[in-house]
Amino acid sequence: MSNFIESVLDSGMGRSLMKSVLPKTIGLKRYTPAQETYFEGRVLIGASDNAALIRDIFRNLKDARAQVFFPAAARNAAAIVAAAKEFDVKATGLEVSADMSDKFDALVFDASGFKDGNDLNQLYYFFNPVMRKLNGNGRVIVLGRPHMSAENGEQAAAMRALEGFSRSVAKEVGKKSATAQAIYVETGAEANLDSAFRFVISAKSAYVDGQVITVRKAEAISYPDWHKPLAGKVALVTGASRGIGESIARTLARDGAKVVGLDIPPAEADLQRVMSEIDGVVLVGDISSSEAPQLISDKLKELGGGDIIIHNAGITRDKTLANMPEHWWNMTIDINLSAEERINHALFEQGTLNNGGRIVCVSSMNGIAGQTGQTNYAASKAGVIGYVQYMADELLEKGITINAVAPGFIETAMTDAIPVITREIGRRLNSLSQGGQPVDVAETIAFFSNPASSGVTGNIVRVCGQSLIGA
Predict the structure, then answer these.
(1) Fewer CB atoms inside 10 Å of the end CB: C or N, the chain?
(2) Cα torsion angle, 347, 349, 355, 361, sign
(3) Residues 202-257: tens digit of each pLDDT
(4) In angstroms, rounded to a whole number, what is the distance separating the alpha carbons of residues 56 and 104?
(5) Which residues does the annotation mark as catalytic?
(6) Strand-pair category, 234-238 with 211-215
(7) Cα angle at 433 between 430 and 434, to 5 degrees?
(8) CA distance 86 to 251
(9) Quick check: helix, strand or coil at residue 356?
(10) CATH number belonging to domain 40-215
């Protein structure tokens, strides 16, 4: 009977029925090489009293094809005009109201000057009249300072409020396939803002929604070519033969990197196919073996050292804890977590990772929210998050960044095998009401890998369309 129901729902009539029951979606606009720059469209800029990041916003917008506007009646309009003039960006003042005819592709507010909770009303005054003026696939970006580095408790509260605000805005604009993010910039890290700002306002962040990115003080590196930011870099991608790993390898190669793709012997044929198509290097091995760290280190040294390490390979062995065999538990922890630690240790110890190295680990939404029958998998992926957050301080001193992505519902062969009703509902359990693509995970990894992301470390970005389950 279940097979019959699935066949009916997979038919044309069934799909029409599903569309009438489940929410309709607006397709996401993703990056294509035909796009001349990282952003093109109309952007409305607002800034708090004593805003400190407005110059850095305009420093980035000068490289975009943006039509820039600001509320003419704002108390800080003079600061916006001065920043625009400094970077030779035309900014036009508007009489902003709920009945205005203007629409925008991005709404950007610099809240870095907030001192206490009383300042939060500035968010209301800027966003309230224009929330209905955001175009489909639009962007909302709020910038502030990390709350734990605030001057006092009142300022910390105001800054932490930006996270709750931006996540809630994301849920309100998601029906337009628009997204909202918060970027926290440490004092002194203003020059490190560029990669985070350009990523979240661009089409490369199409399925990243309701997220918080923290930018730390580090060596400032000028933003490279938008289309080839990884030119000259050597990148290792584990589990590169298919699915998300294949997309990561293809995206890094598209961005200019020389990719070393690693996978297990049974996947060698697929790995050979992918690497031949992107002019990559094949490396066959099992990351959980005792030989793997040295195998990887030796191959990277042959290519002049590694610049980017992507820990993507992983397994699932699902059963409820009461029914789980011991070897399933041990295997999952070893491959998903311990192998990454051993490989990193060897690369650090042998000096295989070049200056400015980037490490990106693939975690999971289930490592954040948990999942029935996945105590082993969820523990391993939560462990990845703990490792990334702990190692960030230590590695930043060496000029190395480490971050993680946590995918949600990503359309792969695995999700295609899910029963149709469960699949259709699962796709819509997020603010964008649709599943993501493997390239969405890959684009976020490419952002972390960017040379200009020198101040982006210790971040866990969920690539899930703002899943309704999890933090």
Answers:
(1) N
(2) positive
(3) 999 999 999 999 999 999 999 999 999 999 999 999 999 999 999 999 999 999 99
(4) 20
(5) 377
(6) unpaired
(7) 100
(8) 35
(9) strand
(10) 3.40.50.720
SS3 (DSSP) at 106 = strand
Complete DSSP assignment for 15-67: HHHHHHHSPP-PPP----TT-SSS-EEEEEEEE-TT-SSHHHHHHHHTTSEEE
Closest CA to 209 of 122, 124, 137, 133: 137
Domain boundaries, the chain: 40-215, 234-463
Give exposure, 133-162, as e/b (b: 16+ Cβ within 10 Å). bbeebbbbbbbbbbbeebeeeebbebbbbb
Domains 40-215 and 234-463 share a fold: yes
Distance of CA 54 to the CA centre of its chain: 23
pLDDT tens by residue, 280-333: 999 999 999 999 999 999 999 999 999 999 999 999 999 999 999 999 999 999
Structure tokens at 274: 């992918």
The DSSP code sequence of 296-328 is HHHHHHHTT-EEEEEE---------GGG--HHH
The architecture of the domain spanning 234-463 is 3-Layer(aba) Sandwich (3.40)
348 near 354, Cβ under 8 Å?
Answer: no
